[in-house]
Design a protein that fits this description.
single chain; about 375 residues; alpha/beta; Purple Acid Phosphatase, chain A, domain 2; 6-stranded mixed sheet; 9 helices; 15 strands; about 15% strand; Serine/threonine-protein phosphatase; metal-binding; protein phosphatase
């Protein structure tokens, strides 16, 4: 894992900030305001709890032990060459239980998560499980580390099943130490076309694969859409919306939260080249931050060369956590750590399977 800053270059550029070195020097994302801690920045471990069933506490203990064994088994899968995994032997019964308990957990949370500072923020994963596992080895996992994921767990990569089941298992076990937001690939309209439906069918056969896909879809439909860290940092998958002044039920707002992109434009919002949602400019991000008393927007959704990229006068930070994306883009993975003083430290991770990035040394 390398420590670095996010450059202030415009959208689409791959140039490095002149103050950044490939050896991974650490610095903070610049801020024009002094952040103040809000509320408690520490939190005791809240582990898996649910209503005692007919068999009482003994049954709950068995459920917890079963979930912990599953999470440990998935986290320690052996990684072969080129990021391929050994056979994981995830069963239909395990997925069924994870999906039912995971959906129950997500349904107990509001669509907007409020969390203290002292948390690692991840961008897109896209089934890059081998790289995710190595990054988690560096950051730590719940309950020792608090994590916030900004969506897009599946599609593109080969191991969406391992990715989402591990994270959901952690969510069930340690609900206050990990938050999973919904991305645009956590929708049927997208993931039925870009790989996850086919992954389910390949693993479990067409009939059971369709059933597993439906169970996962129910989980995705229950995920929260955004998070606010210590009342000052807004996090979502896509971006802000011109519909913010209106009711949350406005479908445009929900769409923009998982689809919108920042862009250097001379207007607040404009049509997106994706054909969905909008792009937002400097004036839009300024208005949003001033209206909501937010200092920084952290979002994902776009592959950036350095894994992290600060734009819009350092008020918008893009984080992308899938390195060597689709085995085509020679990008690094990025993770942003928001410390208890609300300073943002950006870290980079190189993929072990990218022949170009292998030449970059880690610190």
């Amino acid at each position: 894992m390398k420590k670095s800053s996010a450059g202030s270059s415009g959208r689409g550029t791959t140039s490095h900030d002149p103050r950044k070195t490939t050896s991974g020097e650490q610095k903070t994302v610049p801020s024009k305001r002094k952040h103040r801690r809000s509320g408690k920045d520490t939190m005791e471990t809240q582990e898996y709890q649910s209503e005692a069933g007919p068999n009482g506490a003994g049954e709950e203990k068995k459920i917890r032990e079963r979930l912990m064994e599953f999470a440990e088994r998935i986290k320690t899968i052996k990684i072969q060459s080129a990021g391929q995994l050994e056979e994981t032997n995830i069963t239909i019964q395990e997925i069924h239980e994870l999906c039912l308990r995971g959906r129950e957990r997500f349904m107990s949370e509001p669509p907007l998560i409020k969390t203290p500072a002292g948390i690692c923020v991840f961008g897109d994963i896209h089934g890059h499980f081998a790289d995710l596992s190595k990054i988690l080895d560096k950051t730590g996992v719940p309950p020792k580390q608090r994590l916030l994921f900004l969506g897009d767990y599946v599609d593109r990569g080969s191991y969406g099943t391992e990715t989402i089941t591990l994270l959901v298992a952690y969510k069930i076990l340690y609900p206050k130490h990990i938050y999973l937001l919904r991305g645009n690939h956590e929708t049927r309209a997208v993931n039925r076309m870009y790989g996850f439906l086919e992954e389910c069918r390949t693993r479990f056969g067409e009939v059971e694969g369709n059933r597993m896909y439906t169970l996962f879809s129910h989980v995705f439909n229950s995920m929260p859409l955004a998070a606010v860290i210590a009342k000052k940092i807004f996090c979502c998958h896509g971006g802000i919306s011109e519909h913010i002044p209106y009711d949350i039920t406005d479908i445009g707002l929900l769409c923009d939260t998982i689809w919108a992109d920042p862009m250097t434009i001379n207007k607040r919002f404009d049509g997106s080249p994706r054909g969905v949602s909008k792009v937002f400019g400097q004036d839009a991000i300024n208005d949003f931050c001033d209206m909501t008393n937010i200092d920084l927007v952290i979002r994902a959704h776009q592959c950036v060369s350095d894994g992290v990229e600060a734009t819009h006068d350092d008020r918008c930070l893009t984080v992308f956590s899938a390195p060597y994306y689709c085995q085509e883009s020679h990008n690094l993975a990025g993770v942003a750590y928001v410390d208890t003083k609300l300073q943002v430290q950006c870290y980079q991770h190189k993929s072990s399977y990218d022949p170009i990035k292998q030449t970059i040394s880690e610190s």
